[in-house]
Amino acid sequence: MQLVTEDNITDLAVERWATAREPRTAELMTALVRHLHDFAREVRLTEAEWMAAIQWLTRTGQISDEKREEFILASDVLGLSMLVVQMNHQLDAKATPATVLGPFHIDGSPELDYAADMSDGVPGATLYLHGTVTDLDGKPVGGAVLDVWQADTEGAYESQIADIDEARLRAKYTTREDGSYCVRTIAPKGYTIPMDGPIGELIGRTEISHFRPAHIHFLINVPGYEPLITHLFQEGAEYLDSDVVFGTKQELVIPFEPRDPGATPDGGTSSEPWLEGRYDFVLQPQG
Ligand code: BEZ
Ligand code: FE
Question: Which residue of 55, 140, 182, 190 shows the fewest CB atoms closer than 10 Å?
Answer without folding.
Answer: 55
